[in-house]
Amino acid sequence: MAFSADIYKAFEDVVGKRNISKDIGIVETYRCAAAQSSAHYGPYDHKTPKPEAVLLPGSTDEVQNIVKLCNKYDVKFKASSTFWSSMGFIGDDNAVQLDMRRMRSIEIDEKNMIAIVEPYAIAAVVQAEAMKVGLTLNVPGVGCSSSPLASTAGWVGFGPTSISMGCSSENMLGAEWVLPNGEILRTGSLGAGAGWFCGEGPGPSTRAILRGFQGSTGSLGVCTKIGIRLHPWPGPTFIPTRGTVPAYKADLPDNFKAYTLCYKTWDDYAKGLALLHEAEILFLGHRQFNMFGRDIKTAMLKILTDTDMQLCDIPELVKDPELKKVNDDMKIEVQVIIAGVTKRDAEYKEKALDKVLEMSGGWKSKFMLEKDMMDYVLLYLIRMGHKNLNYVLCGAYEGNYGLSGNLFVSAKVMEEASALKRKWELEHTDIAAHGGDSDMGSCCIIGGGGPTGWEFFTNFDAHDKASIKGTAEFFNETQRWMTEKGLGVDMGHWNQDLRKENGYWFSQEEHDAMYAKLPQPLVTVYQYKAREAINPKHLCGSYYRTLTPGKYNSQ
Amino acid sequence: MMDGLRDRLIKVVGRENFFDDNKTLAMYACDESFAKSMMPRFVVKADSAEKVQQIVKLANETKTPLVPVSSGGKRYKGDTVPSVPEAVILDLSGMKKILNINRQQRIAVVEPGVTYGELLAALKKEGMTLSVPLTPKMSKSVVASVLDMEPRLNSLHQWNFIDPLRCTEVVWGDGNKMFTGEAGGSPMDLAKQWQTEKWQISGTGPMMLDFYRLLTGSQGSMGIVTWASLKCEVDTMLHKLHLVAAKKSEDLNDFMYRVLRLRLSNELMIMSGTYLASLLGVSAEKVIELKKELPAWVALVGIAGREILPEERVSAQELDIAEIAQQFGLKMVPAVNGAKGDQVLEKILNPSGSKYWKETYKGAFQDIFFTTTLDKTPAFIQAMNTMAEECGYPTTDIGTYIQPQNMGTSCHCEFSLPYDASDAKQTEQVKKLFQKASESFAMMGAYYLRPHGIWAHLQLNKDAQSTSLLKKMKDIFDPNNIMNTGKLSI
Amino acid sequence: MALDDFKAMQERCSNCLGCKWIPFDKIKSQRFGENCPSVCYFNFNTYSARGRFQLGLGILTKDVEYTETVTEAVHNCTTCGLCDVSCKVTRYNLEPLEHNLELKADAVKKGKTLPAQKPIMEALAKEKTMLVGKSKASRTKWADGLGLKDLTKEKAEVLFFPGCKFSYDEKLQKTAQSAVRILKKSGVDLGYMGSSDMCCAGRALQMGFQDDFKKNAEANIALFKKSGVKTIVTPCSDCYHAFKRQYAKLGLDIEVLHTVEYLDRLIQSGKIKFTKTIQKTVTYHDPCHLGRLGENYIPWNGKEKKILNQVHTWEPRRPRYIGAYGIYDAPRNVLKSIPGVNLVEMERIKEYSWCCGAGGGCSDTNPEFSSWTASERITEANSTGAETLVTACPWCETNFRNAVDENGKKIAVLDVLELVEQAL
Predict the structure, then answer these.
(1) CATH fold for the domain made of C117-268
(2) Measured between CB atoms, which of B178, B187, B409 is closest to A197?
(3) Who is most buried in A102, A368, A382, C412, counting CB within 10 A?
(4) What average pLDDT does range A62-82 have in this prediction?
């Protein structure tokens, strides 16, 4: 059914005149530039389709009424909290975009370490409010400008603190969800009104349908409120800072220490990380600054910790022999933070970390021990407020490779991956030539250690069409390599089976053709059936992988 | 029709694994709970996933209810008692292979018949252990235990609520077989996965649907797990247990919250003196003696050191936790009247003897358990005492166990009611109290996460949306409703 | 520059949310963490700097046309620059404020203005003020009897430039008079522009009227140069920014100081001594144009240069207006030196100060939005427990004067000068 004035009026009656628009300018700003922040999709030189209207719901009731109207008039919809990546945008012509920014409440149950948050309560403010009562949360690697609700309900959500706090799915408690058919589901203990404290069950977990390894990315309705687990914060009620932008540093007490652990070989690195997975001493573990590129990372650290410096200083800095030594020292490294909850605990953790280094042949970078640098790192990694430095080099980036899984397998192929990227950097001009290895990632992606999630940062220029095209070609090359190595889907392509190159959603037929070839296609057959059960009109797009049952022969 | 089924079942499992004699059938017709007894029609024992799949397909064809059972010995929760007639018990307790132990990734892959004792012994050789529920029965299937989300003793290792469960191989109620978790993203062949160094580490997904969460808490009503990978832990090199006594449980709560907040301790739980007495007593007389000696309430604080500087770790935590106890007017000690820490530690970490410890005191028991938050437990304890009095059940016999879960955001709250099953009056008292308490707790906001027996009705009746969704999932994964038919009200 | 000079920036903006929040490192609470009045009031992404980049690009690619909504969206920006300094925590190659201003200028060039802007620009042309209803003839009445040198006829070291608000607002006139008396008493050789005194026209630039601004600015620059003054001191932050940053681009090379800077110097050198104690707990609001937009102008004529294939740099090095070097210490020093005054800070201070809502012409073109913005700041001020909100800008002061917080509660509003005078 076409989007008529009557339909528009019906939506307007739900959210109020002020909170809906179909103006050409307004809807234009709700299109994702797929050359920019597309996240595992693209990069492509185009934008996603224009929504018919943009709505700003202010409550779960409003969301439900919107969804019911969508069902009535066969209008597709997608909700997003921060619109950081292409995932949250609509992908059809007859679709409305829900912008969740008016829903932003935060409640904290300090005793039981739980926060109940709405979509636009971004991690930065949840953390700020939690710190007031001695708590914090797992901030996903994408940074504190992300929505914990969206991360938990919609995507994967591992981050620097996952080693001690778990990833987003592991921190999920009860959730309130407007299903695509307009019904409201409250999961876990919330369902029968017992509270938000338990995300499992009752019996089999209702949350199972809504998120697995990754969330449903807005394709199964709208999560309007969620309980998340909080974690201890043995620091002050807010992080005091000093310095001048961008060189802000944390003034934290002595129980917080940031170190950069360095290794000579990837084998030793893997050994060290494995020991750290088991040692239970880290508050945080993340290979962060290597995202700038092997050749220039210490130059970038110099620039970012000096207000007067800029990117034009890179060439001089990399020539500095002393800095070069430091850079070489830090070729294979990871940043860690230990946070002692008591004096004895702090002392033990320090000793234990030294022991790990001794057992794995690693050392602490002296360069990173300097107080200002350590305090810069502490602030950067605890708050994750500078994650948009992803874009600092060229204005656009995309994560690729995505060596996720066995730490020892990933470590073995790192140099080869780096060399492949370096070769492309030198033979082409479309991506930043910053030294091949630009891997960044959590030292593990689930609580307590285990699999890694390492992405290489490939920086390119969203303003330069050749750069955009060349980057996409590079990702095809790295995918070819990943396939050859049996390493699965390249991170740059993770969402390419969920949204077409032209920005539109896939049809069922298109998905059928893809997923029939999976090693275990049944996964997508059941997802089809689950979707049919709660989204029979397919109103939320194609970010839920489905395979029509008839297209698969069961064993 | 039954004869036809009989023959076909024999064809799958072999005559030696097929049972239709009354004696065998009676063993599965009821358990130690108050679940209404129902004779199954047949009992079959399967020893491979292929046979399980054949049986499930056959059950679909013939619309035969199937009840999977993995643990041996006595059963206590009613989930393996058929709810409908003409059910076939599918006993997997003979599937005892430990398919793989990988020390590097701290993963073990086991079949459903493997017990805690068997697995712990195998893991020990590799320098590992596994988080356990409190003193499981000797014949308890590890897979059944983790699928039932039995609470682990160290909530700080519960980054994922359903740890240590990771990947599974499952035969769904519709007869399809697949792997869940990361294992579901690769070819359905463990050996091939191991060749490519994939070790079934991450349990979620593999994509957007969290398959294994449809299996947990399902009491076998969605599918049958034929192997599970489990996240193991590095074995301890130094392990101690200390005790903190109090007159009331609420006197321990602030202490518990603080210890959890500081992420200290390994095992951490609260028990009533009665509960601890039942755990430690080797005979009914000993239990009675211990009940008098032990404090009314005790917090059990386990402290462990592993590979990295174990002595330093234990020493630091001992001192820190002792200070915390002091801050709350309590004292952490290595022993109290009637119990020594190391004795308790040995007990809680290992399976029970041939007689399940809860039966020591009076021979039978009934548990009521649910999930809540620690601060709410005093109200539940009070309510339990009041109702016990009303039902004429001696409050001094009520055993209470509070186990923090999920890194301290919730807790398992359990009341254990021992009784003499040969005494009709006691049995009636316990039945009445069980019913009354179950209903009252539901009204008070208890969350029956693991909704065994009547709790399913109590929990799901209050939650129409969840019930509706679970029914839809049931229709997907078990369209002919043959998997443990009648369980969970879905 | 023109709008299409910003195409690269429009395409390189990464939608990171930096323009919607003060730097994340600085956030202390959810309530006072946001930075853009426009997106906070209107809520659509369109109203953020990111949205404006998309709008601008859409206009260039013809995906967007100037509808009434688009025109309003473009002009509903107070040009406070908080998006700009927040962006610069992680980006070296984006200039959101410059783009916001250029977008407004583009709209104006295409005749897309707001109704309330017309009388303002007519007043500027005719009466040399941007306050509608005020006349040129009465502009300098406030100076009668003060003994100020008329710099069209005499020489002085320092030009006192009150700006339109201080010239015409009855309450503010008294503050201007106090300022002159204080400065003169401290021995400052002070003059004013007499009948040549006219609007700085900074607000015209904020609204996108580039040509009108340039015309008035050049006229003023000529007058200032002719007067031979060494220093221009003004109590108006808008004028301060206009002279220090915008006029400097057009060739003004006379020292520009705000009155609080001058006062600070005088207090430090002992030329001003306080004799009374003022028992007050106050909180200070950093005006945008004195604070983050009060940094020195640094001439630059460069271009983009790529290194390492695609890394953007500027050649020569491009000045970064990060807001950190605005005027923050001087007003605080002044307040702390007044006996009895207890200064408590809000959460969003210095370069991350929340806008009063008056800028960009918004107090005239959208009083409701402007008033809401002020109300947000009053809420923040009241949250400190302070009894008085002190500022150093007449636009901020008048906007705050009439505003109430989210609970309907007002707060006393004073200029720094008023407190100084009370304590003398």
Answers:
(1) Rossmann fold (3.40.50)
(2) B409
(3) A382
(4) 97
